[in-house]
């Protein structure tokens, strides 16, 4: 099991699995090449990197997703075969929802836009709502498992 | 421990503010619940985002009150409890409101994830009082303009809750100051965690208000 911390990314192939925990407004992005069975996961915090600042690329949708593609290619994956599965982007405190607190929705939009730009189809998504998620991806089966704190489990 | 943007003297000064804020918050909780509240000496350290997860746990279930303050000072304040302790605390408060002198011991029933509406309101009020007292301490120190919202309350993974505060500073920082205090209340040993995530801008403002020489 490879753990992906917040604002980080990792690439894996079977039998390793990828896991990231406690996604709230953040979005977990999985890209995988089903033929080569290579997968990458990023725990993205915010939509866009501000200009002139270096930071970990996985922190932002606009820098993290192209970087994740690059690392998968480096590991032997092929860009045109890539598929995406995404989860997260919740609104953790809906009663406080002003502009800032809708960051979850903004994150999901930014992730979708970045994927569209790279022509990577989104095969499955479990986004929005008001609950946090923990996710695990198995590059062998291509299945994404999603847990909530209340013990609910769903497979995508 | 990562970069070390702040000199040790500045960290000591900030820790003292956090210390006093946490003690005010703890005293307010003790008065509200009519119990003795103990508080550990808070720590304040500069960590990167991944370290926050290591410290608080990525998927520990927590009931968390979240207060965001903005203005000359910006940042987030959290009060985190395990579901079991949250319910014990809520029962203590609802028992007091009902005029009972002895709180019922917390009932064990499996996961401990269910809260009645009354218990949830009690927790919101507890979060309100803790957060209000903590932030009021910052106000009085810095004598600056600050707005604070009513705190939000969530039952979720610790990281999913705390990330709300990390996102608020994430655009301009990769490291944050994590203030961390543990308190315990009453004979039932309810343990909670106070977490303070100031915006880097605010750290500079606080240091200026304290007249800490950064040389």
TrEMBL record, chain A:
Gene3D superfamilies: 3.30.1330.200. Its EC number is 3.5.1.44. SUPFAM superfamilies: CNF1/YfiH-like putative cysteine hydrolases. One of its GO terms (molecular function) is protein-glutamine glutaminase activity. It is an enzyme of class 3 (hydrolase). Keywords: Chemotaxis, Hydrolase. It catalyses: L-glutaminyl-[protein] + H2O = L-glutamyl-[protein] + NH4(+). One of its GO terms (biological process) is chemotaxis. InterPro entries: CheD-like_sf (IPR038592), Chemorcpt_Glu_NH3ase_CheD (IPR005659), Cytotoxic_necrot_fac-like_cat (IPR011324). CDD domains: CheD (cd16352). Pfam families: CheD. Belongs to the CheD family. Probably deamidates glutamine residues to glutamate on methyl-accepting chemotaxis receptors (MCPs), playing an important role in chemotaxis. This is Probable chemoreceptor glutamine deamidase CheD. It comes from Brockia lithotrophica. The gene is cheD.
TrEMBL record, chain B:
InterPro entries: CheC (IPR007597), CheC-like_sf (IPR028976), CheZ_family_phosphatases (IPR050992). It comes from the Bacteria. The keyword Zinc does not apply. Keywords: Chemotaxis, Hydrolase. It comes from Brockia lithotrophica. Pfam families: CheC. Residues 10-44, 118-153 form the CheC-like protein domain. One of its GO terms (molecular function) is hydrolase activity. This is Chemotaxis protein CheC--inhibitor of MCP methylation. GO terms for biological process: chemotaxis.
